[in-house]
Amino acid sequence: MKRYVIIFFLYVFSVAYSQNKKPNIVIIISDDHAYQAISAYNKNHRYIDTPNIDRLAEGGMIFHKSYVNNSICGPSRASLLTGKMSHKNGYKDNENSSYNSNQQQFVNLLQENGYQTAWIGKYHLGYDPKGFDFYKILIGQGYYYNPDFIEKGKGKIREEGYVANLVEDAAEKWLDERDAEKPFCLVIGHKNTHRTWMPDLQDIGAFDKAKFSIPETFYDDYRSRKAAALQEMSIAKDMRMGYDLKMLGDDFRVDNNFKRMNEEQLKAFENYYKPIQKKLEKSKLKGEKLAEWKYKRYMNDYLSTAVSLDRNIGRTLDYLEKNGLAENTIVIYTSDQGFYLGEHGWFDKRWMYEESYRTPLLIKYPKIVPAKSSSNSFVMNIDIAPTLLELADVKIPRDIQGVSMLPILKNPNAETQNELYYHYYENGEHAVSPHFGVNNKRYKLIRYYKRVENWELFDLEKDPQEMDNIFDAPKYQEVKKEMMKLLKKEIQEYEDFDALNVLFEDQEFKKYSK
Ligand code: SGN
Ligand code: CA
Predict the structure, then answer these.
(1) How remote is the CA of residue 195 from the centroid of ligand 1, in Å?
(2) What positions does the domain N-sulphoglucosamine sulphohydrolase C-terminal occupy (predicted)?
């Protein structure tokens, strides 16, 4: 009898324990992966099938209005880790900032609360990650083939193979070897789909048969948008024939990406691209015809690189399922920002315009998040840190600027914020002027400074493609006044003093803030 009583109590304890068990966390963060290139976001599958990312939408929530506070790699990752805007975490741009990894990050707080943590893959915040029991990170942007990693305690290691496969292999190895008694938080940082868009060998040419029609705004003339007219990210004029589109002549080893390859890898690329180059040379394309040829080649390379990414996301999900971890693991898929797939004639990111400002976000956590749910509520990358802390039952520090998405995860129609604030700082490659701005669901107000001094206002309902700057339109003067007030309020709430200085010097602002 006594034995049965003991067994009964053991059973009760183990049920109670498993119910209170802290959730595991897997964040998969890719690089430059546009929501336009995810089938879950485009039900008609305009460009691509991403069956594995779509599994997260099937089993969890897809966010249609998820944004970044500063649309570029390092700053976006710093905001993910700290839950703070760039001016607060100190990492404003890739060119001049250095990341202070000794500051408060959500991973350290998880560690203090019994979690084991790891970052594997692209990190891009220097070489001294803190808050991770293990790391194995790419050097800088990393290479698509045979990349070098820096592993905690081991230094630099070169590995043979395709980057996304190697990153996933390392992630699974870490999961295999972890302490199964403790909850874990693993960040998988993929290099895909960053420039120069190189797929795994098996995916080369995956879109040869696809037909792409150019985006409606491909021939944008940037009328009414000064900063946009000055950028250097146009497919027609700035995308490089050799480096980007791989028209590299007889020996591809002139390019660093190919120099690293072994014979098999090199041959696979040369065999595919050389005939394309021959054909192009014969055709003597010029002007719009050549621009559209470039667009199609770009799409072919970009999307096949996304296929290689999606396959590895599938491997992560399979691993969790096979190892009985799917129920108690929060899986987040996101990218460090959005990307242009020819909209406005562009590649790259950086702008507060929709395609680069918005980023994919899908969250699966069967215990809380309803399957197949879809949210149009505003969320930001800085909201991820407080959300995870709350889910892990760790107190959210007061200086975190993001807001927990938990109400939305429970009910996709809940709203946690009505307006969003943005600030982009880098003033270098691709020639995008620094700018800050505010938007609600209807309007967007942007102030450019440093490279270009200018204002833009968009009516997102009437002009979702942001082609028509109505800042000076007489009929929008009331809206302008309201949006200026909103901008000031957001700047003050976030304590962004750089932006406040620009605003206080501004003649238009002085007029409208009376
Ligand atoms: C590199 C790229 C740019 C890209 C930045 C930032 N040039 O400098 O095209 O905008 O990275 O990207 S490349 O010729 O080196 O590929 S980010 O993802 O790190 O933000
Ligand atoms: Ca990026």
Answers:
(1) 7
(2) 342-491
Could you list the beta-strand ranges (E) of 143-232. 148-151, 155-158, 184-189
Which are the contacts of 400, defined by CB distance < 8 A and separation ≥ 6? 82, 83, 84, 382, 385, 386, 389
Which run of H or E residues covers position 375? strand 373-375
Q: Pick the residue with more confidence: 408 or 19? A: 408
CB 122 within 8 A of CB 137: yes
pLDDT band at 375 (very low <50, low <70, confident <90, very high): very high
Measure 174 CA to ligand 1 centroid, in angstroms: 29
Structural domain boundaries of the chain? 201-297, 423-512
Please choose, from the candidates 193, 243, 206, the residue with its C-alpha nearest in 3D space to the C-alpha of residue 359.
193
Stated as kind and residue range, the H or E segment containing 171 is helix 163-177
> What is the 8-class DSSP label of residue 346?
B
Instruction: Identify the pLDDT of residue 15.
Output: 46
Q: Which residues contact 410 (CB under 8 A, 6 or more apart)?
A: 368, 369
Q: How many Å apart are CA 404 and CA 393, to the nearest integer?
A: 12
Token pair recorded at residue 423 = 């600030």
User: Residue 46's pLDDT is what?
Assistant: 84
Q: Ligand 1: residues whose CB is within 6 Å?
A: 31-32, 72-73, 94, 124, 194-196, 348, 429-430
Mean pLDDT, residues 213-223 taken together: 97
Are the beta carbons of 352 and 490 closer than 8 angstroms? no
Does the pLDDT at position 26 exceed 60?
Answer: yes
User: Following CA atoms 114, 363, 342, 448 in sequence, which dihedral angle do they give, to the nearest 10 degrees?
Assistant: -60
Strand ordering across the sheet containing 134-138: 155-158, 148-151, 134-138, 116-121, 184-189, 24-30, 329-335, 361-364, 61-63, 373-375
Q: What is the pLDDT of residue 5?
A: 61
Which three-class secondary structure string do you get for 81-96? HHCCCHHHHCCCCCCC
Which helix (H) or strand (E) segment holds residue 511: the answer is: helix 507-512
Mean pLDDT to the nearest integer, 476-497: 97
Contact 343, 43 (CB under 8 A): no
Which of 94, 302, 335 is the pocket-test mutation for ligand 1 (most atoms within 8 Å of CB)? 94
User: In the predicted model, what is the mean pLDDT of residues 199-217?
Assistant: 96
DSSP reduced 3-state for 44:
coil
* Fold annotation for 423-512: Arylsulfatase, C-terminal domain (3.30.1120)
